[in-house]
Design brief:
Layout lengths: L1 H16 L6 H39 L14 H26 L1 H5 L2 H5 L1 H13 L1 H5 L8 H14 L4 H25 L12 H70 L8 H29 L6 E4 L1 H11 L1 H6 L3 E4 L8 E4 H17 L6 E10 L27 E9 L6 H4 L21 H11 L4 E6 L3 E9 L15
Parallel strand pairs: 2-4
Antiparallel strand pairs: 1-3, 4-5, 5-7, 6-7
Length: 501
């Protein structure tokens, strides 16, 4: 029982410190930002808290007796003495808190604070909210404008890591309630001069502090989400610019070298130069890569501003895939990759754009080859599935339609599920979530050619067809990219589809 509780507490603490789903680059940026802003928070808190303590000293010195209204009867000597004792204790408590806060500049100079800036943040916050409660146990009211100042100040100055803000608030408020409950259960008098506290006043304090904490945490969470989105966008833009310069520079350098050699030969051969066929092919290949890059960028822009226009027609999927594999034959030989095609000729025709669907297959196959070690093996599959169930007929995605009766009511819901499976190194789950995003590239392969547009275009094409595209992968076990495209309208799905054994 104790081990389970400790495990849950440790898991919760790790969730607070580093929640899942955030990139390493963003966590590094947030760490540096937290160091800088925690120092700013500290240097503003020191004079602010010192000023508050000095004003409290002046107030206590100016009012040796409790302030009264004109029509109010004077206080008794016992109440005046209690007021003076209580005032001195308040001043002493705040001087102790000021002492703890003064230790923070020493703490921030240590290696420990640079490694764990979150603890420096908590030390500053708790010096002003938690330490006075611990020293002056039994303070029977929330120090409401002081706490609100602290929570709002740290939300404005350190607008990241909302879980850290929540922790600083929960501990301070939780200690207040626990200490109050302890005093009630033990019967210890809190020693507070204010005897006029009522349920209404305590409820008002709780209401105000609750909404203060909620607004602060919500503001920090929204700002951090916006900041994270902008950070990831800037990172993708940097990777995109690097990839563009890399992919455009290499063909241009190659073309420049060939032209310089031709010019040198031209000078040596009295203006008569013979250009070999391989040199011309090299120039044409470089120009083709540049044109392909520019066309991809233009296509991305067009797809973002207007819908993708498809030239749909009934397509025999097996023939289309054979053409794609044939076009990639030299590419596969170069990378020592092999393909097993299990797509049957008996599949019903799909309603798709020939060029765009071929592009999806080509992108998925080439990506699997380029981003995996050599001698990779690919398996292509396709079967007919149903994405809906009506009148008692129920099929799950991925199930073949063999021996299933024809049903006109669900004919438009029949799809062909195509898959490209490899036996490569696999993809981590955190990367699978970003594969189909625009300009996203694997951080470990940022120097490889490519702009991170291929899978994004695949998603756009499949979405325009009314299908879905996903990936399932496990590190060390390979990956499977699959997508769905619709059958031709009114096609009977009772034709048997031969799937991979």
């Amino acid at each position: 029982m104790v081990k389970q509780l400790a495990g849950k507490c440790w898991a919760w603490f790790k969730w607070l410190v580093r929640p899942s789903g955030e990139s390493i680059d963003y966590l590094i940026w947030r760490h540096q930002f937290l160091i800088k802003r925690s120092r700013l928070y500290m240097w503003i808190s020191l004079p602010l808290f010192l000023t508050a303590v000095l004003l409290l000293v002046v107030f206590v010195h100016h009012y040796p007796e409790p302030p009264t209204f004109p029509e109010q009867s004077p206080f008794s000597p016992e109440m005046i003495e209690e007021w003076q004792t209580y005032s001195r204790r308040i001043v002493q408590v705040h001087w102790v808190a000021m002492g703890f806060l003064s230790l923070c500049p020493v703490l921030q100079r240590t290696r420990w604070s640079r490694r764990f800036p979150a603890l420096l943040f908590l030390a500053i916050s708790w010096s002003m909210t938690l330490v006075p409660q611990i020293v002056f146990l039994g303070w029977s009211a929330i120090a409401r404008p002081a706490w609100e100042y602290v929570f709002f100040m740290q939300a404005v100055l350190v607008p990241v890591h909302w879980r850290l803000h929540l922790l600083s608030q929960v501990i301070s408020i939780g200690f207040y309630f626990c200490a109050g409950l302890f005093l009630i259960l033990t019967g210890i008098e809190p020693g507070n001069f204010d005897e006029t506290l009522t349920v209404a006043s305590v409820g008002l304090d709780i209401f105000n502090i609750f909404w203060t904490c909620l607004i602060c945490c919500l503001a920090v969470a929204l700002y951090e989400r916006l900041q994270r989105s902008e950070f990831e966008s800037r990172k993708h833009l940097q990777m995109f610019l690097h990839a563009v310069t890399h992919d455009l520079q290499n063909p241009l350098i190659g073309t420049s070298i060939v032209l310089q050699n031709l010019l040198r030969r031209d000078r040596d051969a009295d203006h008569n130069v013979m250009v070999s066929a391989p040199k011309l092919e090299q120039l044409l290949a470089g120009n083709a890569r540049q044109l392909q890059l520019v066309q991809s960028l233009l296509e991305i822009h067009c797809n973002e501003t207007q819908d993708l226009i498809l030239q749909r027609e009934p397509l025999p999927l097996a023939l289309l895939v054979e053409d794609v594999v044939s076009d990639l034959e030299e590419f596969l030989k170069e990378h020592q990759a092999t393909i097993t095609n299990h797509i049957s000729d008996n599949l019903p025709a799909v309603d798709a754009d020939r060029t765009q669907l071929a592009r999806v297959f080509s992108n998925l196959i080439s990506n699997a080859v380029k981003h995996n070690p050599g001698k990779i093996h690919l398996v292509l599959n396709a079967d007919v599935i149903c994405t809906a169930s009506r009148k008692g007929l129920k099929l799950k995605p991925g199930r073949s339609n063999q021996n299933k009766p024809n049903h006109p009511a669900i004919a438009e819901k029949w799809m062909v599920r195509c898959s490209v499976q490899d036996n490569g190194s696999g993809i981590p789950p955190e990367q699978c979530r970003h594969l189909f995003e625009l300009y996203w590239r694997n951080p470990q392969t940022r120097h490889s050619p490519g702009l991170g547009m291929g899978l994004y275009l695949c998603r756009q094409i499949i979405a325009a067809h009314g299908g879905q595209i996903h990936v399932s992968s496990e590190v060390g076990m390979g990956s499977t990219f699959w997508f769905t495209v619709p059958l031709v309208a009114h096609t009977s799905p009772d034709r048997k589809a031969t799937t991979a054994a």
